[in-house]
Amino acid sequence: MSYQDQMRGIALELEEILNLDEIEAKVYLNLLRVGPVTASALAKELDIDRARMYRTVDKLVSRNIISITLSSPKLCMAVEPQEALKIALRKKEDEVNKIKKDGEAIIEKINSEISTKHGRNTPTFRVVQGRGNIYADIAQLIENSTDIVYISTTLEDISRMYHSIIPEKITISEKKGGKVRLLVEVDDPKLISFVKRFNASETKICKLPSKGRMIVQKDRQMIMSDLSGSKQSSSNSESDFSLCTNSSEMVSNIHRLCSLLWDTAQPLTTLDVKNYIEKK
């Protein structure tokens, strides 16, 4: 794998871990590489509009990911990666604690004031916005499953899912007798390690019918997204949308498609990937 490919991979992972967009990740990594530098010099180095660079720097400063010196001219400095991770963890912990506290209070109010009625057998349909929200839905589907769940998606999406709670939920599902089957398209044997680390119960490679994301559990639920605009969505997680439904007809159709893909796919080994690429 080339140095450029490695940097792109690190940038993608950094975006997900620190909740950065594509430009912010590039700025942070470049500051780590070159050391203190002016915002204007950074804009020229990364070929980014100067006004946009100043806005990006201000945003990263406000989040304590970079700092500005008091010298003249002012220089931008990146905080150490370990400190950036601590900052991200503290922010997430504060968010989780607030949701837990406020959630418990509102549930108590609802239970005491409202008698809820649920149409449990009524098919539901909803559109979910934001990669974090979509991954949370996928994680919940897997955690509650004691059956086979199919995940069919792109290599880039798998790389992002690896840094979510989804791998942990796979382990929980397996302990209850569940299984996650991953279908992914791989064009380079060197990328096998990135797929294996996701730790799906079983993994196969095949030519996917689209650049989309399909997660389905038989007779239960389906989550589907269009990832054809992957370059755009990679820089803005909020541009990621998914359709989530328990409609028996839609779930059945997608489950049959994933089952068919699985039956015709190849096991994930270096030799099989090489053979698969050569046949393409």
Question: How does this model look, in words?
Answer:
Strand 7 and strand 8 form a beta hairpin. Helix content is 54%, strand content 16%. The radius of gyration is 22 Å and the shape is globular. It folds into 2 domains: 3-81, Arc Repressor Mutant, subunit A (Orthogonal Bundle); 125-279, Endonuclease Chain A (Endonuclease, Chain A, 2-Layer Sandwich). The protein has helices spanning 3-18, 22-34, 39-46, 50-62, 81-113, 131-143, 155-161, 166-175, 192-196, 230-235, 248-264, 270-279; strands at 66-68, 76-78, 125-129, 148-153, 179-184, 202-205, 212-217, 221-226, 241-245, 266-267. The longest helix has 33 residues, at 81-113. The protein has 12 helices and 10 strands. The protein is α+β, with helices and mostly antiparallel strands and 280 residues long. The protein has an 8-stranded mixed β-sheet with strand order 3-9-8-7-4-5-6-10, sandwiched between helices. Residues 14-81 form the Transcription regulator TrmB N-terminal domain. This is Sugar-specific transcriptional regulator TrmB.
Q: How many strands, which pairing sense, and closed or not: the largest β-sheet? A: 8 strands, mixed
Spatial strand order of the main sheet: 3-9-8-7-4-5-6-10
CATH superfamily of the largest domain: Endonuclease Chain A
Q: Write the H/E string, N to C.
A: HHHHEEHEHEHHEHEEEHEHEH
The CATH architecture term of the largest domain is 2-Layer Sandwich
Task: Compose a concise summary of this entry.
With 280 residues, the protein is of the alpha+beta class.
